[in-house]
Amino acid sequence: MDPAHPNWAGGRYRCGPVMQAPTPYVEHQKAVTIRNDVNLKKESLKVEPDEENPGSFLVSFTFDATVAGSITIIFFAKESEDCNLTPTKSNLPPVTVHFQQGLGQKFRQPSGTGINFSMFEETELLKVTDLDIYPIAVKAEASPPNQDGSEGNPVSVTTNSQITQAIFEREKGEFQVRVVKQILWVNGLRYELQEIYGIGNSVEGDLDGNDPGKECVICLSEPRDTTVLPCRHMCMCSGCAKVLRFQTNRCPICRQPVERLLEIKVNNGPEE
């Protein structure tokens, strides 16, 4: 070896400066609360036999409404701009039913307005490759409050709504319904609803206050209020999340890459 080599000293090479990988940084955001006036409980959506019309099936579900409004059932619906839903089958016109304010309401499509599966090929009913058209779409629309414009001019009011899009599945010889997407249309903006894993443990309710599922998986003491995106695990408190975002870009639960951290403050008290 050449003793004159700049990195040669005492019979061995000196190590040069170690190049460290840049510290990962993950964006941390706070969630914005959006009021949802009508909410269809997606796990309750199903089709039931129409006793008065053998062979026909009716859409039913449970929903909550803080205001009055209307529900529209559209079969084989195509979504266009501004969350407009257009039926693609002329023999299945949309059905609209008005409702009043109330929680835990049961909706059942009027008899005689349902779908007869025998009218369609099974491949057509179960087709899921082209989700531009949804076999079932439910639009729950809140009625805007009555407002009078000044000097006789009407006030333009934006109607808020929730849209539930579902597909048919066949199980044990019977058709079942599975929700694939829920959308909020609020003040002219479209929001797609995503389920957050673990948020139920962060909401005060019947669970024991010592339930370990409520605490941050990092510090094990503070309540969870921060969700990892895109995997949607609500597993950390905001304090640990702010530290973690400079140290790693992996979710503590599933180890998937983290794109963003979303802080969600759950308000269990009455609305102001």
From TrEMBL:
<dbReference type="InterPro" id="IPR013083">
    <property type="entry name" value="Znf_RING/FYVE/PHD"/>
</dbReference>
<keyword id="KW-0519">Myristate</keyword>
<keyword id="KW-0479">Metal-binding</keyword>
<feature type="domain" description="RING-type">
    <location>
        <begin position="216"/>
        <end position="255"/>
    </location>
</feature>
<keyword id="KW-0863">Zinc-finger</keyword>
<dbReference type="InterPro" id="IPR001841">
    <property type="entry name" value="Znf_RING"/>
</dbReference>
<keyword id="KW-0833">Ubl conjugation pathway</keyword>
<comment type="similarity">
    <text>Belongs to the RING-type zinc finger family. LOG2 subfamily.</text>
</comment>
<dbReference type="GO" id="GO:0061630">
    <property type="term" value="F:ubiquitin protein ligase activity"/>
</dbReference>
<keyword id="KW-0808">Transferase</keyword>
<dbReference type="InterPro" id="IPR058981">
    <property type="entry name" value="MGRN1/RNF157-like_N"/>
</dbReference>
<keyword id="KW-0449">Lipoprotein</keyword>
<dbReference type="GO" id="GO:0008270">
    <property type="term" value="F:zinc ion binding"/>
</dbReference>
<comment type="pathway">
    <text>Protein modification; protein ubiquitination.</text>
</comment>
<protein>
    <recommendedName>
        <fullName>RING-type E3 ubiquitin transferase</fullName>
        <ecNumber>2.3.2.27</ecNumber>
    </recommendedName>
</protein>
<keyword id="KW-0862">Zinc</keyword>
<dbReference type="InterPro" id="IPR045195">
    <property type="entry name" value="LOG2-like_mRING_C3HC5"/>
</dbReference>
<dbReference type="InterPro" id="IPR045194">
    <property type="entry name" value="MGRN1/RNF157-like"/>
</dbReference>
<dbReference type="Pfam" id="PF26192">
    <property type="entry name" value="RNF157-like_N"/>
</dbReference>
<dbReference type="GO" id="GO:0016567">
    <property type="term" value="P:protein ubiquitination"/>
</dbReference>
<dbReference type="Pfam" id="PF13920">
    <property type="entry name" value="zf-C3HC4_3"/>
</dbReference>
